[in-house]
Specification:
The complex is a heterotrimer of chains A (about 450), B (about 260) and C (about 375).
Chain A: H1 2-22, H2 27-34, E1 64-67, E2 73-79, H3 86-103, E3 111-112, E4 117-118, H4 123-134, E5 139-144, H5 148-160, E6 164-167, E7 191-193, H6 198-212, E8 217-222, H7 226-242, E9 245-251, H8 260-267, E10 273-275, H9 282-289, E11 300-303, H10 310-313, E12 322-326, H11 342-353, H12 362-378, E13 380-383, E14 386-390, H13 391-399, E15 404-406, E16 409-411, E17 424-428, H14 435-440, E18 442-446
Parallel strand pairs in A: 2-3, 2-4, 2-5, 5-6, 6-7, 8-9, 8-10, 10-11, 11-12
Antiparallel strand pairs in A: 1-14, 12-17, 13-14, 15-16, 17-18
Chain B: H1 2-7, E1 18-27, E2 30-40, E3 45-50, H2 56-64, E4 71-76, E5 79-80, H3 86-91, E6 94-97, H4 109-116, H5 123-136, H6 138-142, H7 153-165, E7 171-175, H8 183-198, E8 202-207, H9 210-216, E9 219-224, E10 227-233, H10 234-239, H11 241-248, H12 254-264
Parallel strand pairs in B: 3-8, 3-9, 6-7, 7-8
Antiparallel strand pairs in B: 1-2, 1-4, 4-5, 9-10
Chain C: H1 13-17, H2 23-51, H3 56-61, H4 70-101, H5 108-128, H6 131-134, H7 136-163, H8 172-193, E1 198-199, H9 205-208, E2 210-211, E3 216-217, H10 218-240, H11 242-252, H12 254-259, H13 264-290, E4 292-293, H14 299-312, H15 317-339, H16 351-365
Antiparallel strand pairs in C: 1-4, 2-3
Helix pairs in contact in C: 4-10, 4-11, 4-13, 4-14, 4-15, 5-7, 5-8, 5-13, 5-14, 7-13, 10-11, 10-13, 11-13, 14-15, 14-16, 15-16
The chains are: A alpha/beta (about 450), B alpha/beta (about 260), C mainly alpha (about 375).
Chain lengths: ~450, ~260, ~375
Amino acid sequence: MKRKLLTLLAALFALTLFAAACGDNGDDATDTATAPAATEAPEEEMDEPEEEMMDHLGDGSLGVAEVDEGEEIQIRSLNAITGDVAFLGLPNQRGVELAIEHFGPIHGFGVDIGTGLDDLCSADGGQAAAQAIVADDSVVGVIGTSCSGAAVAAAPLITNAGMVMISPSNTSPALTSDLAGTAGENYSVGYYRTAHNDLYQGAAMAEFVYEDLGLTNAAAIHDGDPYTQGLAQAFADAYEELGGTVTGFTGVNKEDTDMVPVLTEIAAGGPDALFFPIFQPAGDHIAAQASGVAGLENVVLLAADGLLTDGFLELSQTAGMYFSGPDVRFGDNTNESTGRTADDFLSEYETLYGGAPEAAFWAHSYDATTLLLEAVEAASYVDGDTLVIDRQGVRDYLNGVSDYSGLIGSISCDEFGDCGAQRITVIHHEDPNDIATSKANVVFEYP
Amino acid sequence: MSSADSGTASSAERVPLLEMRKVNAHYGAVHALRDVDLSIYEGELVCLLGGNASGKSTTLKTLLGMLKPTSGEVVLDGEVVNDRPTSYRVARGITMVPENRRLFKRLTVRENLQLGAYLRKDSDAIAADMERVYELFPRVKERLAQKAGTLSGGEQQMVAIGRALMSQPRVLLMDEPSMGLAPALVQQNFELISQIHEAGMTVFMVEQNANMALGIADRGWVLQTGRVVLDDTAEALLANPALRTSYLGGGKGNDEGETAADDAG
Amino acid sequence: MNGSDVGASRVAPTGRRRRRRTRVDWFLTALRVSMIALVAVGLLAFIAQEINPDNPFARWANPDATGLTGAQFRGLVISGIAQGSMYGLIALGYSMVYGVLGFINFAHGEVFMVGAMTGMITSNKLADAGLWESNFIGSLVFIVVVSIIVSSLTAVVMERVAYRPLRGAPRLIPLITSIGVSFFLQNASVVLLGPASKSYPDVPDWVKAKHTFLQIEGAKILVIVVAALSMAALWYYVDRTKTGKAMRAVAEDAEIASLMGIDVNRTIVKVFAVGGAMAGMAGILWGILFRSVIHTTGFLPGIKAFSAAVVGGIGHLGGAMAGGLSIGVAESVGPLLILEPLGVSGVSQLRDAVAFSMLIIVLLVRPAGLFGERLPAEDRA
């Protein structure tokens, strides 16, 4: 009897491992999508419109934030500033800091971001940080998150509290819309972003593969993360729309190293091109092992901005790959609020931090911040010694943004918060020993 | 103690091979040995008798260094070895055939014998001793490549003794050699011990079966609740009614034991 | 003594021999049957599909299944063997430590990670000096030696600092401690080397290229051959040398082993050292095959190697290697061989699930593992 029970326990233990192994992916999104609903928006005191009120945006329906004399307007930065993706989050946070400095005071009040918060690039991290933010009802808006996975958890909490959230680098279609008028499953009113929607990136890559490379069979691999899943799906949908055949669509686990099985699964369909918009280190292994699998000897490898990092481009197996990503040729685009160009920003960044930013979304972060500050300015008025910010007014301003000139180009917000310039480029990476040339080697532009 | 002295008169001047001097030992709060004095001389076959939990096994563990005495001395060939580990004592010529034999069941018979000679480096002499064990137990030779766990109880006993002999012991400790064996095998086993003793081995045996043990032993002690209550020659012990009352009677309690101890003193 | 008189002799020996089947028994049987049925149907569907893609049975199971070519199948098996031999090498450490101390050293996967990291650092230094390219084999031997030393030392220090003070404590306590040690080593790696994944230098073309022999990449041949040699060396060490016999003796009965004059503590240290060396060797092979390491590299292979040790029969060295190979091949081949023909989608994400199902199936059918001996309880007293 005892032995039987032990066996059963061992089996249950193994089943738990099994479940943990299967449930590793996708869980995050579903867990957290439901969790934040429980959090109530703090009841704001509803100020009756007063006669002496200055002209400002908003009807007070979401309440106001008041800034007393000597205090500062509170906004927050919520980015992945530690761990594997710190290369993405740190430049974002610095973009926020510099934008605030360049923008200057609003109606005589300074702006403060407190301590830079960390989204840990995960749903858990996003949720924890968002809870800390909404506990302080003086906060008007948040610039973040860096990662779509974190936004899925953070956005409902933050927007329910009457604050706005503008992300510089979330690209998952689920957070905004399908671009055809239907909100994504994780869309929250009050969420905006200056990053592109991955439907554009997927479409760009699909068009490039089908029309420019002339390949009619392609496969895609994601790693279960909302960003990679969304982008791989966007690519597959756009590719079929164009007339191509998607010969395989599957996933890996982020910790996988032996990619022969997944590549064999893909090889069974006989694709000419393989798109894997994932991250390191799983991306390293796919790139290295693809040519060794029977049927994939000559497959064209394609990846997206998640792998467009120096660490990946340096690997010998990445020679010949194509990468899609936001168009980073900012040229002399000028931010209309601060009058700065991308070059101004970069030289100041290098002086302050001793090197160029590692990821491209600093510009999106800078523009997101100036947009938020413009919105605060438009939605606030001084009442005696106090600055009153109408929360609905902040949203009204952002909803109406049209042809705003930013570092990333012309910014217009659609009804689901997509404000990005939506300009995508594809680069051809020829020589792992000369990354700079590869990054500038644009072979395709979208639109 | 007069009778004991007379029994060993011939060896009185010699240094005992193995000795316990006023040894006390504890298991946590349990006082397991109380002022135990034992001396074993070269060439003797002696036995320590006692019922369950009388301290017999503790005595062996203390002699071997698996348990440290709280006071008193363990002396091996004139050297106090209280702080020496088991391996040191084994190297100096003491070894044990454990209760229930405790062979390495998943190892082969040959490997068991080889492990008996673990501390020895003299491969020629080891081979010679191996041959001696085969001579002593021809059955063992047939089973060399078999796993020890597959042997019968009697064969295991042979291997256990053989393994102990492989360390070239000067004194062989035997923990309950009759334990867990069929009656016929018990008889055979005591004959084996007797045979080894006659071949010149010093044997110190711990037993419950007093009649059997005293039948082959020279001298004996009776241990009760950690105290030596009787110390005499085998014949004297067999004839001593105190042995019957205190021990063979089934250890009915301390009172009788104390009486027996007084008688012996 | 069946039938009519059972009621009269409720406590009769018969009753004891034919134990009443409990609910647990029924549940286990049902689980066994369904697991095996699943595997059987999947395999049959695969075979049907390979014989003829339009086979009605295959179509019924999964209308979209495409099947595999011979070359693809071979590629999967070889990649599984290569991966599995590394699991096997790591599993040896779990098995040996379990053998002597009776607890699972969960930090053993991290010893493997330490080996892989050491190889990464050493090989990059050699590459900087230009030796990696000019004398690859020599460099490889060098990093193997360094990595084995470092990972053995890690294992030995771990035993001395974390486990020896707990000798004699209930087994759960060193087990929990080992999880702590595991976290410690992972975090130490983050502190010392940073959280990003790190690469081995590029290997020569003959390692990357496929060879005419069975169309296998050089790296995989290297991994399989080196793993087999390491295993043979370990087998010789444990089975034939005096120290090896001492290890087996300590594993079976430490008290009696000490009675033979064996220094038990030193033997245990040697067990940790040897297990660590095997893990270090696996770390280097990992580095050569995948060329990238991160502080979490040890976790999943560690858990799978532990499963391999259990599948093979924990405490049994040949079993550990066999368990490693079976888990490696199962997780490589299983998704496409069994799950794909059943119409499961995204099968490649289920490779870990397949690996652990293998553990479940073996535990259900042979609770002691493939090679585990079932000794009566009193034998381990």
